Amino acid sequence: MRIIRIQLLLALTLCAHTACTAESTSDDEATAADLADLPGIDDHTELVAALAAEVPEDDAATFDTADAVPTVDEPLEDSDAPVIDAALPLLKFGLAPRASNALRAAGIESWRIMQTIGNASASAGTHLQDGTVNGHPYCAATDISVSGMSSTQIANLLERLAKVGFAAWYRHNGFDHWVGVNHIHAVYANLKMKSSLRSQVWSWLENRNGLLSNAIYAFHHWTAAARAVVKGKFAQSAHGTTNGGSTCFVGGLYCGGDKVSGSSSTLYRCTGTGDPTVVRHCANGCRVNSGTDDSCR
Question: Would you give the DSSP letter of residue 275?
Fold first, then answer.
């Protein structure tokens, strides 16, 4: 009996330090398959070259606070054909419009964006192109310079990035199982992306490092509100498998199925940080209105 108890204790201890997965795992929890494509450490030759060539600007004070407000993700078309819209110009080639707008909201200037689409032959493929939307080739992953920033400012930036929808890590040489150039690696959660990036977002949601080791990430721990934004954005992209997830305006009223999940005969209020709140169950159905709040019939 004593041996059985010891074996049980060892099994429970192992589960506390590994990704034990039950057959009843919900859609909001990562399975072993979700984490199967976590990348190793890429060859960041292109990033090293970009860092060497950068001309830093004195904007570090921007990140003295962790304040940021998530942007509204407008609809995207998976197409090589340019789409004429009123969106702001991309901060850098290789960004999807949603990711570019979110980086702006986090306070990122174009000079800090070091790599979007990258094709280094020795790379694990993390920065290969994920697709083309509205005529823009994009990669859901972005590498960001931390030049001139203190550890506190870097932590604030990680919090800001999560608040606008990025699963992001500070890659600090010798820490959190990273070896290589110091930078922030960020993945925008509401985009269609390759399997390795999907695995990274799942890893981030479990407070792990997004690398093959899948170890607990120690540098920064995000607030529940920031985590909810990334989780919500990832759900909108059906866990990185579609670009169809346009988002609702926070505080706006929507029928279920119109940018919010829920019953098509119920009116909801957009929260921007996860599930919408119920405003009213519509006895005669819910009406989708163009350019204004939805309403009960």
Answer: S
CA atoms of 261 and 268, how far apart (whole Å): 9
Which DSSP category does 216 fall into? B
What's the predicted TM-score (pTM) here?
0.74
Whether residue 72 contacts residue 248, with contact meaning beta carbons closer than 8 Å, is answered with: yes
Residue with tokens 């932590």: 155
Helices (H), the chain: 2-17, 45-53, 97-105, 151-163, 195-205, 224-236
In whole angstroms, give the CA distance from residue 166 to residue 181.
Answer: 20
Please state, in angstroms and rounded to a whole number, the distance separating the CA atoms of residues 39 and 241. Answer: 18
Give me the long-range contacts of 33-36 (CB less than 8 A, separation at least 24): 34/198, 34/199, 34/202, 34/239, 35/199, 35/202, 35/203, 35/214, 36/195, 36/199
The tokens describing 220, both together, are 């920064």
Check if the beta carbon of residue 136 is closer than 8 Å to that of residue 87.
no
* Structural contact between residues 85 and 74, judged by C-beta atoms closer than 8 angstroms: yes
Residue 162 tokens read as: 């999560």
How far are the Cα atoms of 33, 128, 270 from residue 77, in angstroms, in the given order?
A: 28, 20, 23
CB 110 within 8 A of CB 79: no
Q: What is the pLDDT along the chain (297 residues), one digit of tens a residue?
A: 444 443 433 333 333 333 333 333 445 677 888 887 888 766 566 666 666 666 677 899 999 999 998 887 877 777 776 665 546 789 999 999 999 999 999 999 999 999 999 875 545 578 999 999 988 999 999 999 999 999 999 999 999 999 999 999 999 999 999 999 999 999 999 999 999 999 999 999 999 999 999 999 999 999 999 999 999 889 888 899 988 766 677 788 989 877 777 788 999 988 765 578 899 999 999 999 887 899 999
Query: Residue 144 forms beta bridges with which residues?
Result: 113, 184
